[in-house]
Amino acid sequence: MSTESVSKTRSLPDPGRKQEDADRPSSYAPEGEPGEHLTSWLVSLVRNREYGQLADLRRPHLTTTAHIRAGWFSPTRDQREIYEQVAFLFGVYHQGRPTPSYGFGTLGEAARRIGSSAGRGPDDPGAARLIDRIVASRRIPWRHLQHAVARLRACDQRPPSWARLAEDLSRWNDRKARIAYEWAVDFHTPPSRAGRAGNGEATADTTTKGTNT
User: Fold this and answer.
1) Which of 201, 119, 195 has its CA nearest to residue 160?
2) Residues 36/209, Cβ–Cβ less than 8 Å
3) Cβ atoms within 10 Å, residue 113
4) Separation of alpha carbons 56 and 67, rounded Å
C-alpha cells in the first residue's frame, strides 16, 4: 500500500467506538491473538470464495473496504497499517489459489523455502540477497516482503505464518524483540538443526491453526 493510500486511511473520519464495533467483521473477536483473528478472517475469504474482496486486498494504491476491515483486527490504531499490509501480502499469495494457507513459521523460515531443486534458502543466491535486504532495513521493508511472498508463491512453497508475521512486524522497531536478527537466524539455520517441525508442516498448514506460530 502506498503512502498516499495509508494517508487516506488515516484521514477517514472517526465514527466513534460504538459504530466501529458495530461495523466490524462478524469473525472479529476481541479475545485471543489479533494476528490469529486476522488470519481466520482472511482464510474465510478464500474458503467462501470472496474473490472480490481478495482482489481488493491486492490493490495497494487504493484504500478499499477490505483493507479497512483488515485494519480492524489490529490491537492499536498505530498498527492498522501493518495489518492492512499483511492482508495485502495474503491476497498476493492467494491469487488464483482455491485452498487457503495459514502459513508456517517466521519470514526467515519461509525464505529458506525459496529456490528450486538446485538449492533453496542460503543455497539460492536470490533468496540470500533478499533476506539480507529485509533484515538490513530499519523500516519495515514492505517491497522486499512482497517480493518474498511472490517468490514463495512462484515456487509453490508455503508462506510464513500470517499471524506470526503480523505480530513480528508489530515489534519490528522493538530492540529487545530483535525481529530482523531472529529472521536471519531462522533463514541460516541448517536443516538438521531446524528440527523435525520443517518435515511435518505438510497438511496441518491448511487445516489447523496449531502450526501458525
Assistant:
1) 201
2) yes
3) 22
4) 8
Residue for cell digits 512453497? 157
105 closest CA partner among 29, 180, 194: 194
Within the chain, residue ranges assigned H as helices are 3-10, 17-23, 34-47, 51-57, 65-71, 80-93, 107-111, 125-136, 142-154, 162-170, 179-188, 191-194, 204-207
**pLDDT tens, the chain, 213 aa long:** 443 333 333 333 333 333 333 344 444 444 579 999 999 999 999 999 999 999 999 997 778 899 999 999 999 999 999 999 999 999 999 999 999 999 999 999 999 999 998 999 999 999 999 999 999 999 999 999 999 999 999 999 999 999 999 999 999 999 999 999 999 999 999 876 655 444 444 434 644 444 444
Residue 61's nearest CA partner among 84, 38, 94, 34 is: 84
d(CA 77, CA 99): 31
Question: Strand, coil or helix: what is 120?
Answer: strand
CB 180 within 8 A of CB 172: yes
d(CA 49, CA 207): 17
Which pairing describes strands 115-116 and 119-120: parallel, antiparallel, or unpaired?
antiparallel
Q: CA 161: distance to chain centroid?
A: 7
Of 70, 27, 42, 30, give the one whose Cα is nearest residue 206: 42
What global pTM score does this model have? 0.78
* R_g of the chain computed on alpha carbons: 17
